[in-house]
Automatic annotation (TrEMBL):
<keyword id="KW-0808">Transferase</keyword>
<dbReference type="InterPro" id="IPR015421">
    <property type="entry name" value="PyrdxlP-dep_Trfase_major"/>
</dbReference>
<dbReference type="InterPro" id="IPR004839">
    <property type="entry name" value="Aminotransferase_I/II_large"/>
</dbReference>
<keyword id="KW-0032">Aminotransferase</keyword>
<dbReference type="InterPro" id="IPR015424">
    <property type="entry name" value="PyrdxlP-dep_Trfase"/>
</dbReference>
<dbReference type="GO" id="GO:0030170">
    <property type="term" value="F:pyridoxal phosphate binding"/>
</dbReference>
<protein>
    <submittedName>
        <fullName>Pyridoxal phosphate-dependent aminotransferase</fullName>
    </submittedName>
</protein>
<dbReference type="Pfam" id="PF00155">
    <property type="entry name" value="Aminotran_1_2"/>
</dbReference>
<feature type="domain" description="Aminotransferase class I/classII large">
    <location>
        <begin position="52"/>
        <end position="357"/>
    </location>
</feature>
<dbReference type="GO" id="GO:0008483">
    <property type="term" value="F:transaminase activity"/>
</dbReference>
<dbReference type="InterPro" id="IPR015422">
    <property type="entry name" value="PyrdxlP-dep_Trfase_small"/>
</dbReference>
Amino acid sequence: MTRLPDFRLETYFSRWEFTARHHMTASDVETMTLSELLALADGADRAAFGNLSLGYTETYGDPALREVIAQMYERADAADVICFSGAQEALYLAMNVLLDAGDHAVVVTPNYQSAETVPLALCEVTGVALDPERDWALDLDRVRAAIRPNTRVVSVNFPNNPTGKVIGAADFTALARLCDERGIHLFSDEVYRGLERDPARTLPQASDLSERALSLNVTSKSLGLPGLRVGWITCRDRAVLARLERAKHYTTICNSGPSEILARIALTARKTILDRNRALIAENLPVFDAFFAEFADAFEWRAPDGGCVAYPRYLGPEGVEEFCTRLVEEAGVLLLPASIYRSELTPTPVDRFRIGIGRRAPEAGLAALTRWMRAHR
């Protein structure tokens, strides 16, 4: 296995995710129980779940699940889909399949750490930072300038984690066209797609724009079902999918059969679940707006364009690292400080923190945060 650095986010979560009283930095929306999910299934899928034989499954994924996934895309069919154990396995294997020593990749920052550390373990990587002074805009000219003759991958994530940024559809389409012109694979992390505050801003999926592009998605984030551990890549380049299948033989081999049926149920009921989750975020946002308005001297707040995380600025004199450390130790409120999103590729803001807006009843955590702020400011 390629040597990789410690995963800062997961190391931090190992210490605090299940011990902090108020998990206010969750990257997923409120989940549901198994019985609630099964209630969304038709009789055939409930019977399939109850009568499932617990043997090995197909490496590419359950054919019926892949059919349901393909229906989410305009130009893909089931043969263009391969399933993985979550998005992390998919990202790791895709980078190992697409990149080798002597290659080059371009990665947009800030991002989920493995989006840059996995490519960095394989080849040279150039970062292109979203601009916080321009509402996290992506400068396509900077992407173009970063491309080299040996560039094989351009990696992006919209809606972005941690900023919640959604770029314009015209820019995203232009990015896909640029990659096609240069013979580059666009790797598009789309795990928050479906949670845009304005549905009209929903981006096209990369694999619909280009035969070479790879669209990454998962049941964990927008659907709020991380316990299923089912992710997938959609790509119309069948040779790439075949290489991904062979790479998967060295990791999970196949997905969990029960999880595949449950994922099929969730994706069949995707509209119902996403409507619920968007409504929950819309209900939560005024609560967060009110909190940040009370402490406008301490925070710079902007609601995300999409997804269920935001990346506010902390203005306090002690800095965001000390703020987040004292907050979790003294008040039991967990946030993710900027160091978690430190990039080796680009300068990154040091005064930001990630906060989650997709869990039910955030009032208790915000009340604890309010008490701490009033006591310490």
